[in-house]
């Protein structure tokens, strides 16, 4: 991560040219970076001169409601400006890349809100967080496809000539079963079904009860609805992965189904945009981000997703962003 | 519905013996009836001398939160007492049969709450609403199995010697896919998938957009999360049934899958309690209640569920309660 920890004064770096704010708003965490407005295009992500970086909680309005989401966004921007020894008057541009922005009306409402926070001549951009995630893997060039699988999941693609398409990103009610939330909800359901006689026994029961410090599957119902945060459910993903690695068949099935869901999401976007060319064999970048797709696990979700997609599109070029605004999932 | 609409004075009927309150708390509606405490066992449901009957909204704490649920319960009981020209001092017993009561700790907390509302010597009973539903079909005898499929779904069974078992009733996060909520959520998901290229085209798209007065599937995401009420989603069930009746394959698959889920729920309970005897051929009553299982549709969900269950347990005796505290679903 670039930064000005010692010696340089952030205020001096921001100077008269002012600053820009970049916000990556996710369903688990929200990150705001403050950069000098006068900045040549960096040669690598590590070379980006970050003045300050602040972190807050969920800013997906569909998960926590609009007012909480906007409060979180305002708070994280204020904190970044304070850390950079500057204030709102220095802001020349803000890019909000926020999960839960799904429709032009969401975008419009957020543009009006951000405009009211920074009166003056600043420029504002509002996008789904998938746009920032794609840019983080392609050094800013908006071309290719990105798959995010953190608490939520979405695939988002852009063609060379600017056509865009997306799939999933619709939240837990609307079938994002490959997301961290989806994986964990399926695991909790499997425990309930094993308990009431509808499903096979699974080591998920003991593993999840231990993690949640509950004594019986009956208590899972109360635990689940005590707090509607999606991230709290998604935080159970490592338990599912670990049960699967230990050979539990139910956990393995959940992960395999989720891999297929995630692959299907990418395949739908790539096909609609013809990112793979007419013969479906052209090369295209596929950026992978989010806690579910992080590596270093024996059960390699990310690798399995690539395998599924590559069977359909052999030109898939996977990219795990070197440095990303994204913060690590809570698992 | 029995009652004292003219002539008799409810206060005179309640007399010095006081009244009892019966509350059926569902995820869509909550009904409270006020009865005279001194009452011989009725010969038929229609002969129950109901002094008053009040209706309020959802009292499932898992759907609307504990404080809203308790407010609704208090409100509906107060209204029933007012309608019966009496007050809390006349109450000798209260039976709360409320969805969302899943664990002894839920029961204990609610017993303490109801005790604080009616100080004195009144008796209190707190159960899951499935218990009231079973009794409504068996003239009060707690024996057999009940399947509720309204906004939520649950199967609950009791043996002659008082053993109980339940399955499902765990809410939308935990896989109640046969419930009204589950059916509607699957339909909304199918529309999203058809729109983003992950699923087949379906007439559900046009039918649901028309019903919700939306112009594009993108808008469904915002609509879904704008209000977390489960009943609001479940109210789309008639659209799914109607699309299926018109031959839509996606809608038909959703209904067939839900029939299987509901049948599996009953089968799990009946098998655990051996309600079907050792050879799985004994007769047992199966009470069916809730909007999803109401008849008079071309696509007969209730009939299909019975067909599935009867293949496994030929002794299944289906009962649709003649008079039930339950109110009709919003569809």
From TrEMBL, chains A, B:
Q: Which PANTHER family does the entry link to?
A: N-ACETYL-D-GLUCOSAMINE KINASE
The record, for InterPro entries, names: ATPase_BadF (IPR002731), ATPase_NBD (IPR043129), Euk-type_GlcNAc_Kinase (IPR052519)
Q: Which GO terms describe its molecular function?
A: N-acetylglucosamine kinase activity
Q: Which SUPFAM superfamilies match?
A: Actin-like ATPase domain
What Gene3D superfamilies does the entry give? 3.30.420.40
Q: Which residues form the ATPase BadF/BadG/BcrA/BcrD type domain?
A: 21-310
Q: Which CDD domains match?
A: ASKHA_NBD_DdNAGK-like
Q: What is this protein called?
A: N-acetyl-D-glucosamine kinase
Family the entry assigns: Belongs to the eukaryotic-type N-acetylglucosamine kinase family.
Enzyme Commission code(s) on record: 2.7.1.59
């Amino acid at each position: 991560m670039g930064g000005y920890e010692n010696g340089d004064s952030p205020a001096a770096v921001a100077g008269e040219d002012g600053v820009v704010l970049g916000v990556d708003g996710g369903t688990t965490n929200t990150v705001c970076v403050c950069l000098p407005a006068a900045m040549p295009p960096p040669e690598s992500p590590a070379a980006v001169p970050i003045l300050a970086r602040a972190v807050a909680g969920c800013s997906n309005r569909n998960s926590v409601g609009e007012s909480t989401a906007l409060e979180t966004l305002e708070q994280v921007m204020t904190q970044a400006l304070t850390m950079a020894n500057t204030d709102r008057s220095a802001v020349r541009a803000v890019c909000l890349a926020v999960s839960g922005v799904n429709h032009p009306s969401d975008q419009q409402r957020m543009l009006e809100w951000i405009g009211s926070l920074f009166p003056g001549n600043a420029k504002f951009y509002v996008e789904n967080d998938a746009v920032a995630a794609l840019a983080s893997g392609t050094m800013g060039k908006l071309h290719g496809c990105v798959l995010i699988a953190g608490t939520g999941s979405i695939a988002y693609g852009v063609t060379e000539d600017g056509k865009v398409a997306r799939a999933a990103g619709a939240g837990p009610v609307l079938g994002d079963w490959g997301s961290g939330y989806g994986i964990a909800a399926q695991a909790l359901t499997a425990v309930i079904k094993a308990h009431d006689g509808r499903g096979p026994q699974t080591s998920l029961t003991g593993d999840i009860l231990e993690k949640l410090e509950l004594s019986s599957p009956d208590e899972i119902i109360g635990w689940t609805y005590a707090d509607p945060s999606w991230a709290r459910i998604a935080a159970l993903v490592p338990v599912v992965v670990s049960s699967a690695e230990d050979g539990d068949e139910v956990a393995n099935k959940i992960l395999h189904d989720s891999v297929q869901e995630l692959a299907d999401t990418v395949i739908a976007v790539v096909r609609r945009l013809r990112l793979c060319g007419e013969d479906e064999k052209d090369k295209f970048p596929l950026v992978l981000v989010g806690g579910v797709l992080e590596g270093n696990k024996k059960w390699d979700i990310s690798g399995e997703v690539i395998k599924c997609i590559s069977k359909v599109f052999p030109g898939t070029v996977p990219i795990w962003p070197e440095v990303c605004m994204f913060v690590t999932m809570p698992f």
